[in-house]
Design a protein that fits this description.
Its EC number is 1.13.12.16. Keywords: Monooxygenase, Oxidoreductase. This is Nitronate monooxygenase. The structure is a single chain. It is built from 13 helices and 10 strands. It has 348 residues and is α/β, with parallel strands linked by helices. It has a single domain, classed as Alpha-Beta Barrel (TIM Barrel). A 7-stranded parallel sheet has the order 1-2-3-4-5-7-8. Helix 1 runs parallel beside helix 2 and helix 2 packs parallel to helix 4. The model has no long low-confidence stretch (mean pLDDT 96). Bound molecules: flavin mononucleotide (FMN). Flavin mononucleotide binds next to strand 3 and helix 9.
Length: 348
C-alpha cells in the first residue's frame, strides 16, 4: 500500500513519510529508495519486518496449498483469474534487505515483528540512522529500549494492517492505544510515538495528552490519492463501510485489521485452513489482482484501522493542512477554557 509518491509527499509537506518495504526483494528496495529520493530531499523512513516468515512456511506442502486454495477457488474463477499452481516458497532474507538500506543511505529505519541483531543495529547507529522499533505491549517496549533503539512506536490494536507483535502471539497483544501509550511512556525513557486509531486532530491531541511525542497515522493516509491503495479500496475507506473493521489471519497468515467484507468473513470461519505467513499472502494475491480488475471490492483485502471512518481528506497536503489547523483550534479552545477557569477562580 506504500507508494514512493505517498512517502515523499508526507515528507515534503511536513511529516515523516514511511515506506513499508518488507515484501520487496533487495534490488526492488534499492530502486524504491532512489525513486523516493528523486521526489523529496527531506528525511523519510524505510520500514522492514524483522521476522520474515512464520514457522512452517519452509516446510509447507503442496497439499496444504490446495486445502487453503479451496475456499478461494470459486472466487478466483468468478473474477476470471487463472487457477494458481503450487510453487515452493522462496524466502527473502531480512539481512539482504537491511544491507540495501545501509548501502543507499536513509535517515530513519523503522521495523516491526522483532528486534534486529545487535550487529545490525550497530551498523545503523554507526551511520547516524534513527532507529524506530514498534511495540504492541509494554514488555516489547522495554525490550526495544534495552536493545538501544531511539524511538518507540506504541501500536494499539485499533491500527490498520498487521499487529507486529514479537514477544507474545498477536492475539494476546491486543491492548488499545488509549491504554498502551501511557503505560509505555511510564515504562521507558525514550520518546514514544502513538499509533493506532488516530484519524484526526482530536486523536493527535489525545495522544499527546497520553504522553506521546509524535503520532504514526496509516489509515488516514491510505485514503489519500497518493497512496498505493487501489480505487476500490480508497472508495471503501471513504464510505460508511469502513465503520466496521475486524482482525483476520486470512489475508496473509498473520493477524491484521481490515474492513469487514465477504472475503474477511469467509476466511475467518473456523474450518478454513490458513497457510503460514507469507504463503497465505501470496495465495490471496491470486484472487485480489483479478478481483480488483473485475471491480469486486467484496473479494479484496481492504486494509484499514478503526479510524477509517474519520478519513475525509483525499490528498496528503490537504490532510496535513487540516490536521495542523484543527490541532491549533483545539489548542486555542483548551487555552480559552483554562483562561476562563482562572478568571472564574479569581472572581470567587
Ligand atoms: C495498509 C497498511 C499497511 C501497513 N504496513 C505496515 C508495515 O509494513 N510496517 C509497519 O511498521 N506498519 C505498517 N502499518 C501500520 C502503520 O505504520 C501505522 O502504525 C498504523 O496504520 C497506525 O494505525 P491507523 O491505521 O489506525 O492509523 C500499515 C498500516 C496499513 C493501514
Amino acid at each position: 500500500m506504500s507508494s514512493q509518491r505517498l512517502t515523499a509527499s508526507v515528507s515534503n509537506y511536513g511529516g515523516l513519510g514511511s515506506f513499508g518495504a518488507h515484501g520487496l526483494k533487495p534490488e526492488a528496495i534499492r530502486n524504491v529508495i532512489r525513486e523516493i529520493k528523486a521526489l523529496t530531499t527531506k528525511p523519510f523512513a524505510m520500514n522492514l519486518w524483522v521476522s520474515m516468515e512464520d514457522e512452517g512456511a519452509v516446510a509447507s506442502t503442496e497439499e496444504a496449498f490446495h486445502r487453503s486454495l479451496s475456499p478461494l477457488a470459486k472466487h478466483i474463477e468468478s473474477v476470471g483469474g487463472a487457477t494458481p499452481s503450487y510453487h515452493p516458497y522462496e524466502p527473502i532474507r531480512f539481512e539482504d534487505q537491511v544491507q540495501v538500506l545501509l548501502d543507499e543511505g536513509i535517515s530513519v529505519f523503522s521495523f516491526i515483528y522483532g528486534i534486529p541483531s545487535k550487529q545490525i543495529l550497530d551498523e545503523f547507529r554507526h551511520q547516524g540512522i534513527v532507529l524506530i522499533g514498534t511495540a504492541t505491549t509494554v514488555d516489547e517496549a522495554i525490550a526495544l529500549e534495552q536493545a538501544g533503539v531511539d524511538v518507540i512506536a506504541a501500536s494499539g490494536f485499533e491500527a490498520g494492517g498487521h499487529r507486529g507483535s514479537f514477544l507474545q502471539p498477536s492475539e494476546d497483544s491486543l491492548t488499545g492505544t488509549m491504554a498502551l501509550v501511557p503505560q509505555v511512556v511510564d515504562a521507558v525513557r525514550l520518546p514514544v510515538v502513538a499509533a493506532g486509531g488516530i484519524g484526526d486532530a482530536r486523536g493527535i491531541v489525545a495522544a499527546f495528552a497520553l504522553g506521546a511525542e509524535g503520532v504514526q497515522m496509516g489509515t488516514a493516509f491510505l485514503a489519500c490519492e497518493e497512496s498505493g491503495a487501489n480505487t476500490l479500496h480508497r472508495k471503501a475507506l471513504l464510505s460508511g463501510q469502513a465503520r466496521q473493521t475486524a482482525l483476520t489471519r486470512g489475508f496473509t497468515g498473520r493477524l491484521a485489521r481490515g474492513i469487514k467484507n465477504r472475503l474477511l468473513d469467509e476466511l475467518n470461519q473456523n474450518n478454513i485452513e490458513i497457510l503460514p505467513y507469507p504463503l497465505q499472502r501470496a495465495l490471496v494475491r491470486h484472487l485480489s489482482i483479478p478481483a480488483e480488475k473485475a471491480g469486486r471490492p467484496e473479494l479484496l483485502p481492504l486494509w484499514s484501522g478503526q479510524s477509517a471512518n474519520l478519513a475525509r481528506c483525499t490528498h496528503v497536503r490537504a490532510l496535513l493542512d487540516t490536521l495542523v489547523k484543527e490541532i491549533s483550534e483545539i489548542g486555542g479552545a483548551v487555552q480559552s477554557w483554562s483562561a476562563h477557569r482562572q478568571l472564574e477562580e479569581a472572581q470567587e
